Structures are given as C-alpha cells and as structure tokens.
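Quick board copy: two proteins, each given as sequence then tokens.
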Amino acid sequence: MKSLVRSAARATALAALAVALPVALSAQDTSYVLIAHDDDAKEVLLSVHNPTDESQSFEILAIAAGADGTERPEPAITTSVLPGRTKQYADLAGDEHSMVELVTNGELTFQAYTMSTDANGKRVGLREQVPIVDSTNMIPGGTWAFVGGIRRDSRDRSDYAILNLSHKTNTCEHRVRSHDGHWVLNSRILEHLPLSLTYVADVLNAVGIKLGDHYTISTNCADNFYVAGLVADDEADRLTVLQPARSDGSALRRPGYDEPPPEPEPPPDGCTSGWVCVDLEGAFHRATNARPSFETRLNTPPGTYRRVVFHFKVHHGGWNRVSSRNQNLFWLAREKHVDLFGFGIAKGPGGPAQVFYRTDWGVTHVNKQRVVKHHLMQPGETYDVMFDFDAAGGRIVLTLTNSSGVEVMRSVGRPNISRIPFAPGQRIAVGFGFRGEYETEPAQPGWVWSDLHIELLPQ
C-alpha cells in the first residue's frame, strides 16, 4: 500500500497516450486490474483518461493476492483527473502480486499494460496489455472459461491467476488438459476468499509437468470470476498475458447465412385476441416489516407457449440501511425455482449500482445465468416494469419506465429454452419482496407492487 501512496503522490507528473482500446466506465462503476506486479524487469502501468470537459475523480486500492478483499485495513486513495487530461500511474502494488480496484466517480477510461525495463530502468521491448475486468468481460458463475497456450520449458514458465469477483467465498473447479486430450488434472475444487486474487506461480510444475506446451486450464466457479495465464520469458524478460476464452459462440453471422431474427413485435396492451392473460389488479403487495414479502401461484391454462410478457408497477420505498445489498424486484417461475423466467434484483449506492436478474430453466440456481445492467433506481419513484420472456424469438428484454413515461433502463438476455410448456395443473409462481430472513436479503418496508398483468402467446 505504501507504494500505491507514493504512486498517487507523483502521478501529476506523469502522462501517457492510450495504447489500445480503452475500457469506458460510467459513474460509480467498479473494475479490477487483474494483476499489478512490478519486479526488476518490468513495471505495470495504469493510464487514466478523462474525455469530458469537467474534472473527474476515482478511487484506487491494491488488494494483495490471497487476501480477503472485503476486509480493508487501509482506505482507498481518491484522486482526480483534469478535463481532457491523461494520467499515468506506476508502482501500483510494488513487488506483490495484487489486483487493483478502481471505482469511478465520473466518466473515465482505464488501461493497464506492462513495460519491460533493463538493469538501468530503461524501457526495452514491447508493451503488453493487462486485462481490466468489469461487468462486460467477467465470466458469469456456472460458465467454463478456458485459458490455452500454457507452457513450461527451460526458458518459459506459466503462472495462473484467478480473480473471485463475488463478495463471498467462491467455489471453483479447475482442470488441466494437454493438447492431445490427456487429463493432467481432471478436477480440483478450491474455495477462493471473497473478492480475492489467487495467484499460482509456475502452474504446470504445481501439477507435476516439468516440460510441455499447448496446455489448457479450464475453470468454472459458482459465482462471477475471471482467469488469465501469464507466460514469462525469463531470457527476454517478457510477460505475455493469456486471456480466457468461452465456448458460448458468437452472434455475428456472415452475409446471407442465418440472419438474426427480427425484433419481436411489442407486447399488446390489454389482452389481444390470441393471447392468454392473467392479472392481479391494484396494489397487491405493500411491504412492511410484519409482512415483507408476497408469493402466490396463478392458474395457467395448459399448453405450449412461445412467449410470456410480465407487466407490473413497483414503487421504490427507499433503500435498506445497507443500500448495496440486494433489493427484490420480482421472482417469476413455472411453479418451482428450477424453471425460472427471472429473479430480479436492484442494488443501490455503496457498491456498483445495478439491476440484474438470473434466469434459466432446468438449471440449479448457482448455475443460472446472470444478466447485469448498471443503473441506479431512485427512491420514491414508481416504475413500470416489463419482463418479456420470448422463448421462440431467443430474447429476454427487461425495461424500467419511470413515472414520466421515459424508459430509463433496458437489458437484453437470451433464454435457454425455445418453448414454454405448461402441463395441466402447472401454474405461474410469482413473488415480490424478500422475507428478511437473511442479512443479504433484507425486508423492504415501503415498497409497493401493483397491477400485475401477464400475457402468454400460444405456440
């Protein structure tokens, strides 16, 4: 931490131009420089640019590898960047393997990269960009991430970094495989401390490989995470960062082949002919400490449906005393939690403000996908919420519209099913507000839910 303080003190004297595409962050966003480790042969530099016409500030904090990042014996350092200026920071974490937390209080861009130096401190070789991890490139819990190109020989060694983005202990499974398909390590389950960096030096040697190339490490965690390989060429004093790959494909298409489906027609007002509708009219739940939550099952005509659209209003009755904790917006399922249309959450000031939901059918909760949008809901506002689960169209759309009729948030996800079956007797389950049984899921007195209107489009 002393090195970080020294860096902030001398930062005004340093400036640099961007060397690659920047990571743009909006107000109150949080991101992490994956690895900030200086040694005799290299420095890790951070370039911060203010593209606006006003001074912008941010907070910076180094979290040493192996430490619980939710425990903070020293405060973050706050610094500002003048309009249009770029600052460069060196010596982010000294000689410790660390990740560096960045929290913006304005619109700034960040980049991190290594700079190799000789014995006299003079720059040699090329710069290597270091990942900055945020909500756009993190790996969602339940997803496999693959880092290839891991090698070990007389000249090169490979390290492996795991960043736990959850504020709780995260359970991760790790595997190591050779290029010919041989399992060097079929499965190892590890517990990673809350908001932590785990740094495994010379990872192939750690699993018993003395010489080899083209190894792939696979990692899957219960909650959000990020991984990377770091291949060091000791002879040339060069570090190469290997970023993770995922196997979930790309939505891009070459011309003339499998064009993406058109945007779905907007859901009907009222109950249009051909749709099936279910309603809970008026204010059906006013949350209090005595009655914090509401759950019910709604009779649903049996059949197979293409699309289900949920409309309701929610009055934001104020954040819980710890505003960064989860505040429940909705829980929408087919009878049981395993077949989940959506479980919506809002988070307020004190952390990265966001609205997110989990979704997926036939998948355990920890493996359900998580769709995140950074947006700060306003206490006292009444929102019109639309959750459009279009299974046949391959699209989930969540929107929030304020009392002035302005759409203030939109997020888009993808369902893991293409049709929505309801057998005789199966019902739609809905829930609003937490029961207040857990510290992370507090009661929300003052919140009001009203005018639930559900529309189902038969196949």
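And the next:
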Amino acid sequence: MSNSSTDTGLRKGRLGVVGIVFFVVAAAAPLLGMTGAVPVAMLLGNQAGTPGTYLAVGLVLLVFSVGYAAMSSKVTNTGAFFAYVGKGLGKHAGVASAFASLVGYITIQLAIYGFIGGVLSGQMNASLGINLPWYAWAIIAWVLVTALSLLSVDVGAKVLGVLMIAELLTLVITSSAVLMNHGANMNLANSFSPTAIFAGGFGGGAGIAIAFAFASFIGFEATAIYGEESKDPKRVVPRATYWAVSIITVLFAFTAFAMATAMGGNNDGVAGYVVKASTVGTTVLGNPAGVIFGIADDNLGGTWMSTIMGWLVISSCFAGILAFQNAISRYFFALGRGGVLPKSLSKTNKAGAPVNGVILTSIFAIVVIVIFAVAKLDGIANLFTWMSAVTAVAIMFVEILVSVAVVVYLGKDKAVSIWKSTIAPVVAAVALAVGTYMLMSRFNLLGSLAPANVDPTTPEGAWQLTGFGWFLVLLPFIAAAVGLVVSLVNNKNEKSALLEDILS
C-alpha cells in the first residue's frame, strides 16, 4: 500500500484499439472455448450446425454493439454497463446493474481459476511428474495475476497480446490444414443454413447450442471499461468493440466449421467423432479437449500441435483471468468513486492501477478457492461449471438492460441515427431476451445441476434444477436487488451526490 496514492483517476492515453482488443479477445479465451464449449455444444446441441450457431450469436452481439458503441461516444466511464444503464434508466437501475455485472465478472474469473487449476494439475503430473492438487495451481496463478494487475495496464496488454497471438495462430493453422485436407467434406448448408442452426428446436438441440455459444462470448463487452485509459475514447472504444466482436465471431465460426468438416461435415460424423475423441473410460465428454487435439494430430502430422495447444490452453486461461481481474477491479473503482462502495476503492497507485479494487478482487478469488478446496470440491466439475453458468445469465441480463437504456437515452438525441438509437438496440434486446431464456432453461446442463433422474439434454429436462441450482441461476437477479437497495439507502445521504456526478 505504500505505493498507493489518493488519485481517483485512471492514467489516461495508454491504450489504443489494439490494446483494448487484446484484453477483450483474451477474456473470451477462444482456445478454452474450442477445447471446452464447442465439443459439448456439438454433441448435445445441433452437431454440424454449431458453427452457424456461433455465427448467428456473433451477429446478434454485433447488433447489440451498435447501440453500445454509440453510447460509448456519449459516456466515458470505467463502469461502462452501470454508467450506461444509469444514464438511460436512472441511477438506481444503474447501481442494480452494476451489482449484477460484478457477479458476472467475479464468477467467470472464479470459473477459469477452477479450470486452469484442474488442467495444470493433470498436465504437470503427466508431463513432469509434479503432483499437486488443482487448488495449489490455482493459487500460483492467483499470485501472478495479482502482481501483474497491480502494474501498469500496458504491461498487462503486452502479456495478453503475446499469449493471444500464439493462441489464435494455433487455431488458424489447424483449421486451415483441415480445410485443405478435407475439402470434399465441406458443406456450408449443413453448418450455416437456418435448418441446421435451429435443428432440434429451442427446447432441444438448438437451444443447447445457443446457450453454449452465448456463454462463449462473455467478455467482449469489456471494451468500454477501458475508455478512461484509452487515447481517444469516443473513437477507440467503438472501433475496439466492433473489432473484438468480429474477431471472436469469425474465429469461433471458422474453427468450428473446420472441426465439423474434419469429422465428415454431417451430423452423424460429428456426433460419432466427438463421442470417440472425448470419452474417458466410460464417461462421454470426459475430455472435450481431445476433440480438437485429435483433429490437430490427424491433419498436421504428429502430436506437435496438440502439445502446443495443451500448454496454450493454460496460457489462454491465465490471459482470461488477468483480463477479468482488470475488469472487476475497474468496476470496484467506478463504484467507489461514485460513492456506492467505500471511497477507498477509487484510489490508484503510482502505476495507475486501481490498487484497492485489485486487492478486493483478489481477496474474493482466494477466499472462494480456499472454500472449494476445504470442501473437497473439484476445480473443473464444480467451480468451473457452476460459476461459468452464473456468468452467462448475469451478463446477458445486464446487456438487455443496456439495450433498453440506449433506446431511452439516445432516443432523445436527434443527432444519433434511428438505427443506432432505436432499431439496433430493440432488435438486440429481443434477441438477448430469447438467448437468456435459453440459458436459464438449460442452466442445469451448463452447471450440471439437474435433479437426480432428470436428463437435462431432453426438452422435458428444461428448467429442472436442484435447490442450489435455483439459487445460482437467480444469483444475478438477487445481486441486482441488493444493488437497488444499496442505491436507495445511499440516496438518503451525501454519497448520492457523488453518484449523480458520475452519471450526469
């Protein structure tokens, strides 16, 4: 704490479009998505139609980005979501959305801590004979992330940039090799036609694939969080948003299409390959990463690429944790500066980082990791699956609020086109509402929280949750309610003036 200052402003002018895109694409952890989410979406969802699902979801989020980017040119605040909602729907709604957003970002970081701990535990034991439990590796990652996030954000951007470029190259090289080797199997209709995308219906395969696709994009919306630290927020943030969503969309759709092509380009081939490549013992999808690893081995001669991917999955997780550490700490910073949380959270250190926000974020993480370790819960089967499911619901709920706020706020500005102020955000709100319904109805599958004797992959299994499952799926809404109460209480004292200044 000796290096901290009483400044309540982040250092400006340090991030351009490329730096912000690095943070955001890293947060989406594309290699993690390809090794984890995509194989599951293929087998339990719409098989060969999964690439089209990712493309469709990406287009929905691009439409959302129209209003979101337009709002960023009017409002520059590290709270982003909460500031936008507050501008359009009032400060009480803004604070409620901020609490829901915090739940989303904190849980996704916790999820990745669980995943990196589990992966490192298995990989280090198999490769180097180092046998440590998942939580030991998670704590090592925690130490490194906390240290880096206390440094200048430029350092974080450089670290994320190197990791992300390596990660993207492995996916592009593998996908290109597949399409060159299996050109005869390419079938655009089987992957991108409406029939393929909606195969199985919203209550079945299509709904499952849509749920996993939306969950895979979490993190793209963080572009506006770095507005105060960008060189020209009114220009940089909109560009970074469009670039980030476009890169993630193309990467997921292209790689998923290459994977489907390698499996034969049809539903039967995809389902058969995923079952064979992911099964551990008698457990189907026991190792979903085996799908893309096997494809890489088959198409690039030997195991060199899958070995590289195996280590880059770890770096992808680390990059994601660091990106969310920065996002969470800046949310705490904004809420502290606005008087909603203690003012001490608005302090920055000499490097320009929101030091107390970083420390609080790290405290949350280490406490949960220790609780799961003491309870002898698994890093992947429990921490990763439970927390990532909560994240998806939280962020999409807030995105709906943002879309409505954009309509209310920009609808009054005659200088903004009706496409940006009304049409795009309304379309986005409707599409996101449908996506949120899909996520919540399939929450039991995302978080493995279905009651005994209930098959969550069937239409009848939708909305069937354990008591703990209902608590988790409702947690973002509970957080929003708490935020609303906090805002109403603060409205009766001098703290409300600070929040009014932030949102005015």
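Board note added afterward: The chain has a mean pLDDT of 82.
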